[in-house]
Write a structure and sequence with these properties.
The chain is α+β, with helices and mostly antiparallel strands. The protein has helices spanning 8-25, 60-72; strands spanning 27-43, 46-57. The protein contains two helices and two strands; from the N terminus they run αββα. It has a two-stranded antiparallel sheet.
Length: 144
């Protein structure tokens, strides 16, 4: 997945560099440019990415080298390498083009894992920090 804010010519260059790297010690079996697609979640403050897909065969050493190069190359948001059954179909369908929020999310505010609607955690008013009233534990009658 390539950064859409990078010029298209540079994105094509990045894809060709990855292809050339694979071909140095492996074999490209299929490839596809899926174009700009909306991301399921933001990556590096981007809502979409330019998807490129390659199916290839390569030795482990090439995978290690490719992994390293893709990690340090500016303009690459995310990548994944999967081991697949060599007998499986050599093409993949691109993800569907979507617009707007996921179904059922229209008009609903985002909530984090704790049910918070965002904002600074220090201002939540609970015992995680920020301004909050002291809480007293109920006093038992056993101490009297």
């Amino acid at each position: 997945m390539l950064d859409p804010e990078v010029e298209e010519s540079r994105r094509d260059e990045l894809a060709q560099n990855a292809r050339a790297h694979i071909e140095q010690g492996g074999e490209i079996k299929a490839e596809d440019a899926w174009g700009l697609r909306k991301l399921a979640y933001e990556i590096e403050q981007r809502n979409e990415a330019d998807y490129r897909w390659y199916r290839f065969g390569a030795p482990t050493e090439l995978l290690t080298s490719l992994d390293h190069n893709l990690k340090i190359t500016d303009g690459i948001l995310r990548f994944r390498v999967f081991k697949v059954d060599p007998e499986s179909q050599a093409t993949a369908a691109p993800p569907p083009v979507t617009s707007g929020p996921p179904p059922g999310r229209e008009g609903r505010p985002h909530r984090d894992r704790d049910g918070d609607r965002g904002g600074d955690r220090g201002e939540r008013g609970d015992d995680r920090g920020g301004d909050h009233a002291e809480r007293s534990e109920p006093q038992g009658s056993d101490d009297e």
